[in-house]
Amino acid sequence: MIEIKELHKSYKMGSNSLHVLKGINFSVKKGELVAIMGSSGSGKSTLLNILGMLDEADEGTYILDGVPIEDLNETKAAEYRNKFLGFIFQSFNLINYKSAKDNVALPLFYQGMPRKERNTMALDYLERVGLKPWAEHLPSELSGGQKQRVAIARAMASQPKVLLADEPTGALDSKTSYEVMDLIQKINDEGNTILVVTHEKDIAHMCKRIVYLKDGVIVEDKKVNQVRASSYVQ
Amino acid sequence: MKLLFKADTWEEIFSSINKNRVRTVLTVIGVLWGIFVYIAMSGAAKGLDNGFERQFESVAMNSLFAWSQSTSKPYKGFRTGRRIQLKLSDIDVLKKRIPEIQYIAPRNATGVFGGAPALTVRGQKSGSYNIYGDFPVYTKIATKKIYDEGRFINQSDIDYNRRVCIIGERTKRELFDDEEEAVGSFIKINDIYFRVVGVHKYVPGGGFESDSDIFVPFTTFNRLYNKGDEVDFMSIAAFDDADIIQVEKDVKAVLKSIHQVDPTDERAFGSFNLGEVFGQIKGFANGLTFLSLVIGVATILAGVIGIGNILLISVKERTKELGVRRALGATPAEVRNLILVESVFLTVISGVMGIILGAATLSLVNNLTSGSDFPYTNPTVPIPYVIGALALMVILGTLIGLIPAQRAVSIRPIEALREE
Fold first, then answer.
1. Whole-number Å distance between alpha carbons of B350 and B345
2. If you measure CA to CA, which chain B residue comes closest to A155?
3. Fewer Cβ within 10 Å of end Cβ, chain A: N or C?
4. Which of B213, B241, B274 is the last residue of a domain?
5. Does B37 share its domain with B120?
6. Is A95 in Cβ contact with B331 (below 8 Å)?
7. Phi and psi at residue B247, in whole multiples of 5°?
8. Nearest of B70, B290, B59, B323 to residue A74 by alpha carbon
9. Mapping DSSP to helix (H, G, I), strand (E, B) and coil, where does residue B86 land?
10. A106 is a domain residue
C-alpha cells in the first residue's frame, strides 16, 4: 500500500538547516495497523505530514497504492488527499459551526457528491461510530471522545486507502482513549490500512506493528501481539 | 460560474456569515450606508431639479425682462441722466433685428414699479390692486391659468380698447362673496367700470406677480393712464435653442440704437434674465448630482474596503478551519472562490438593501413635501445609475475579496494544522 524509499527532509531555520528525516525506508501492506513511535523531534510528525501529502520530501520516493506521489501542486495534492487519505487529528479539527453530520459529509462534498447521497452516507458512517443520534449536534455539544469518533467517521467517509492518525488519543483520558482505539481496531479488522502516530506505549501496543523513529531514522520495526482495546472497555 | 448555482456554495457562505452575525451586520451597514447616501443624495438632487422646474413651469425657461432706466453717459448731444421711454414701435424693430426672439410682450403696469395700485371697487367692497396692461401674446411667455368660464385678453379686446379685466383669485375672494359668479360682473377700477372676463389662478414662482393682480388690455390701460404708445417693460421669450445671454445683449444693443444711447452705457436699460437664473439652478442641481456621485462612490469604496478588512480577519480566524478543509480535499480554487463569493455576496446584499432603503427614504421625503412650497418633486435615480452602482459594487467586491481570498489560499494546510 505504502512504499517509501530513502526519504530525506530538512527544514531551513535561518542560516542553519535542520535535517529531520535522514533516509527512511518503510513499507506498509494493505490491512496493517502500524504505530509510529518516537520522542518529540524524532521526525514522526514530519513523516506523517509527508505521508499525508501536507508536506513534500526533499529526496526519495513515495508510492501510494501504486501511484507515485511526486511533483504535486496544491490542487493535485488536494485531490489525492481527498481520494487516498483520511486524517484523524489530535485536536479533532472538526469545523465548529457544522453539525456532526455535515462534518462527516465534508470530504464527500469536496468529492462533488450530491447532497442527498453524501448526507445518507454521512449518517451511515456516524452510525458505524455509534453517534447517529448526535448527527445534528454541533461539535461543542459533544464530549472529547465523541468528537474524535466524529472525526474518525469523517476520515472514513471518503473510503480512503490509508487512515493517518496523528496522536488520536493525545487529548483524551485513558478510558476514552481505549474506546477510540477499540474503534480504530474494529475499522482495521474490516481491512483498512491505518497508521497511528503516538508516544504512548499502551496505545502503540494496540497496533499490530510498531515502528520506532529516532533522530530521523527508523531504529526498530517490529510486529507485536495486538492488545485488544475492548478488554479495557467495559 | 457553476459555483453560484449550487446550494452547497450558499450553505457554506451562510454558515460562515452566521458564525459572526453582529460583525457581518456591522460590515454590511458600511456598504449599505454608501449606496444609501448615493441613492438618497442623487435622488434628492433630481427632486430639487424637478421641483424648480415645476415651480417655473408657468414661465418660458428661455425668457428675460427688459425695461428702461436713465442714461449714465452723454451721447450725440444728449445729456447724462436722460430718462428713456420704451415705445410700442420698439417691439417690431426688436423682432425684425433679432431672429432668436420667439415672442415679445410689451407690458405696462401700475403699482409694481412706481405708480400707485389702482383703487378697485365693487359695491361695498374695495381694495387696491396692481393693474397690468397686456397683450394676448403674454400668455405664450408666462402661462396664465384661468378658471373655468373665463378667458384671458384676446386680440379684439386690444383692437376695440374693451374695458374688460382678468382678476386674481384673491381679488375675487376680496371683492366677491363666496358663491358669487365673478365672470360677467362689473368692477370699478379708478372710477371706470370693467367687465370681469376671467379669474386667474395664482401659480407660485412666476416672478413678481401675485394672486391679486388685475390684467386689462394693453390699449385700454394706456388710454386709462394716458400713456399713448409708451411701454414700461417687456417680456421676451427666445427660441429654446437660442443663447439667452446673447439675446439679452442683442436686445439692449438694439434698444440703445433706437433710443440713441451710448452703446457702452450699461445703465440705460435694465434687464432680468430668467434663462440665466434657470441655468444657474440647473447648474446647481447638476453639481449636486455630481457631488452625490462622488460622495456615494467614496462611501461605497470605504464600505467595500471594510468588507475586505473583515474578511481578512475572518480568514485569519478561520486559518485552522481552512487548513482542515484543505486536508480533506478542498482545492485552492475552491477556497478562493468561497471567500470571493462571500465578499461579492455581502457587497451586493448590502447594496440592494441600501438601494431599497434609499428609495424608501426618497419616497417618504416626497410624500412629506408634496403640497408644500418646497421645490421637491418626484425624486428619482435613473435605472442605469442604480445598475451602474451595483455593477461597481460587484467589481469592487470582487477586487477587494481577492485580498482575503489570496490570503486564504496562501495558508498551507500543514501550517494551519500545526498543534500549538
1. 8
2. B328
3. C
4. B274
5. no
6. no
7. -60, -45
8. B323
9. strand
10. no
| CB-based contact B200:B149 (threshold 8 Å) | no
- For the record, the C-alpha cell of A130 comes out as 455509534
Task: Identify whether residues B308 and B235 lie together within a single domain.
Answer: no
**Touching check for B413 and chain A: CB below 8 Å?**
yes
Q: How many domains does chain B have?
A: 2
- Residue A90: give the domain boundaries: 2-95+161-231
Decide if A181 is inside a domain: yes
Three cell numbers, residue A179:
474506546
Instruction: Decide: helix, strand or coil at residue B380.
Output: coil
CATH number for position A75: 3.40.50.300
Residues B166 and B202 in one domain: yes
Q: What is the pLDDT along chain B (420 residues), one digit of tens a residue?
A: 566 667 777 877 887 788 778 888 888 888 888 888 888 888 888 888 787 777 777 677 788 888 888 888 888 888 888 888 888 888 888 889 999 888 999 988 887 776 778 888 888 888 888 888 889 988 888 877 778 778 888 888 888 888 999 988 888 888 888 778 888 888 888 888 999 998 888 766 555 677 888 899 999 888 888 888 888 888 898 888 888 888 898 998 998 888 888 888 888 888 888 888 888 888 888 888 888 888 888 888 888 888 888 888 888 888 888 888 888 888 888 888 888 888 888 888 888 898 899 888 888 888 887 766 666 777 777 788 888 888 888 898 889 989 999 988 888 888 777 755
pTM of the predicted structure, to 2 decimals: 0.70
Residues A82, B334: C-beta atoms closer than 8 Å: no
Is residue B184 located within the same domain as residue B304? no
* Optimal mutation site among B328, B406, B417, interface A, most CBs of chain A within 10 A: B328
CA distance A217 to A7: 10
The set of cell numbers assigned to B96 is 425684425
C-alpha cell at B134: 397686456
Which residues make Cβ contacts (< 8 Å) with residue B420, sequence separation at least 6?
Answer: none
Split into its structural domains, chain A has a count of 1
DSSP 8-state class, residue B108: E
* ipTM exceeding 0.85, yes/no: yes
B225 and B349 assigned to the same domain: no
Q: How far is CA B68 from CA B148, B260, B270, in A?
A: 37, 13, 6
Regarding whether B402 and B307 lie in a shared domain, the answer is yes
Do B260 and B154 reside in the same domain of the chain? yes
Identify the domain boundary among B256, B274, B292.
B274
Range of the domain at B238: 63-274
